[in-house]
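Bit of a strange request maybe. I'm writing a small parser for structure token strings and I need a real example to test against, not something I typed by hand. Could someone generate the tokens for this chain?
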Amino acid sequence: MSNLKSWRNQQLQRLKLDSDRMFNQICSEFGLPSVCQPLMDTELRLVETDEGYRIEAELPGVTKENLELHIDGAYLTLRCAYSEHSEGAESVGSFESQMRLPCKVKLEDVEASFTGGKLIVSLPSCHIPERRTIPITSGDKKE
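Reply from user aminoacidic:
Good idea to test on real output. This should exercise your parser:
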């Protein structure tokens, strides 16, 4: 049991990313192009704005119909899933990228747009709470 290693989420994501790259490379050698290949090197960038935050991603060659965007708790997940038919063969694949949000957001205020291969997600109500020191009492009751 001492040989077991505890994997962190980042390590698992890196393993998945490397595996996806390997399989996409093999598929491309057989002439099965991946619609989601541009996502393999995509970085979700967090930009602070006057209104809150904005998340940006460059996704050349991807269509809006191939994308799904979800916020679940403190994480934003970008997923690309596709199915292609060419010369009697079907190519199916997907890719997922996840980012921890910098703060709590009001889901009804989140907006996303996809134009010219660029995804922009606006988090207008996103504010990081200020740090506050909480005094610790001794627990003795004052009467």
